[in-house]
Amino acid sequence: xxxxxxxxxxxxxxxxxxxxxxxxxxxxxxxxxxxxxxxxxxxxxxxxxxxxxxxxxxxxxxxxxxxxxxxxxxxxxxxxxxxxxxxxxxxxxxxxxxxxxxxxxxxxxxxxxxxxxxxxxxxxxxxxxxxxxxxxxxxxxxxxxxxxxxxxxxxxxxxxxxxxxxxxxxxxxxxxxxxxxxxxxxxxxxxxxxxxxxxxxxxxxxxxxxxxxxxxxxxxxxxxxxxxxxxxxxxxxxxxxxxxxxxxxxxxxxxxxxxxxxxxxxxxxxxxxxxxxxx
Length: 279
Hints:
CATH topology: Thrombin, subunit H
């Protein structure tokens, strides 16, 4: 699978500044924009998971910082005030935060276009379902890149669609999908893409992509699905001892689907229109 430039280059890392002046990374973010012309997007948003922003806010800081790749080859930091982040206005279970932004010429990044985001129509047209390949690209904290951001790629497949709400630790029951791809700390807020490949069987016929593999934005990472592991293999002499529990990453990631992100963007643009400012 060849990863297109607009996939890996739409990803940046999100963090905050310590009192010492140093920065600490907290999660992943990506650029999304409405198509305005071929290769152009306006407006442009930076997108992440709401719990990443809430976590940074809990540190008592007033700003978030986006670590981006500079065309010089190094990474740099862009300040984003905490009050710039917008959440779903009517549903606190939606783990999405967006902020209006731009991608200046000195940023070595690309904006992922709205035209390549999944819709119900595209789901039906491409007969997308369980088992289809997906991949995540985002922050691996243990090797994030000293000079520049190095987003990693993790592949998997659709494991469960949003047929019913999924229980989460932070947000209760949420509208989400499950993918067979291990999420780890740092990947929260990462974009999740569908890879439909170059050749696909549709309605019994072999279809070929016109130029390159079809990659669509499917949603963003909420986090990994954890369960409590209970020590049950105990000898009789151990039975009086209390059972120990801890959380285990099942290897399944929880994904907030794109239609929830679209709801947040539309709500933001509606608010901007009411306030008399362009979205």
